[in-house]
Amino acid sequence: MAAHSPISPAARAKKPTVYETYLRTDELLALQKPQAERLHSDELTFQIVHQTFELWWKMTVEQLALARAYFDEGRYGEAARALRRAVSAQGVVMQAIRQLEFVAPADFLTIRAGLGNGSGADSPGFRAILRAAPDLWEAFTGALAREGLTLLQVYSAPKAHLMLYDCAEALTDFDEQFHLFRAAHLKLAERNLGLRAIGTGGTPMPALEKTLRDLLFPALWEVRDELLAQAQAHTGSANGADANVSGHSH
Asked: How far apart are the C-alpha atoms of 9 and 53, rounded to whole Å?
């Protein structure tokens, strides 16, 4: 009975706990549409998931800024740690997006009507990450230049340049996770709208698919091609040397 009793005026007026005050829970839990205003019950899930993105991306951008500053100061171990925290945050985002898979396509169309021409590309957090990436890359390549190294040298001898290698791999991890999020977001849109639909921002699905080729740090992926070419050239030289030796032996 007590669990279903109306809240008394006295209880309503009670002082918030330290927890509630510190986390500003009254404000936080008022940021979603009231039940009476929702177009569909799953609109609560839709809003909470996207608000979750923004919160974790806010933390992500701060960690990327820290990594950039650490690169400038030559504190490579701390830069790698900040980058790993940014990578870990993307794992939370990826888990959150899975909640939207419970929304049926027909229900999503109802929710979509309330979104209008809103687009995930307008996300402040998403756009902040895209803006942060070039400065972060410049700081990393600046660190390489100060150490008199190229990216290929770091990848050719990772143990000799362990801290910078760790930083490069953390940057690669972040790029990969951000890329996977974009792919998951696209597949979710296709799951709800189909393969030939126009997205909420007015962009056709095939055009959105092309954005999956975009990388934050393409040089980190290209260096793998260089490393492979270097190894193949070395193997070819070795095979050629063996052939010459074999030829002389006859």
From this structure: 36
Confidence band, pLDDT 50/70/90 cuts, at residue 221:
very high
What is the SS3 assignment for 134-191?
A: HHHHHHHHHHHHHCCCCHHHHHHCCCCCHHHHHHHHHHHHHHHHHHHHHHHHHHHHHH
Instruction: Kindly report, residue by residue over 148-202, the tens digit of the pLDDT.
Output: 999 999 999 999 999 999 999 999 999 999 999 999 998 998 888 887 777 666 6
- List Cβ neighbours of 238 (8 Å cut-off, separation of 6 or more): none
**What is the spatial distance between Cα 155 and Cα 161, in angstroms, rounded to a whole number?**
8
How would you class 95 by CB atoms within 10 Å of its CB: exposed for 0-12, middle for 13-18, buried for 19 or more? exposed
Hey, what domains does the chain have and what are their CATH numbers? 39-225 (1.20.58.480)
pTM score, whole prediction: 0.85
Residue of 85, 82, 88 whose CA lies nearest to 68: 82
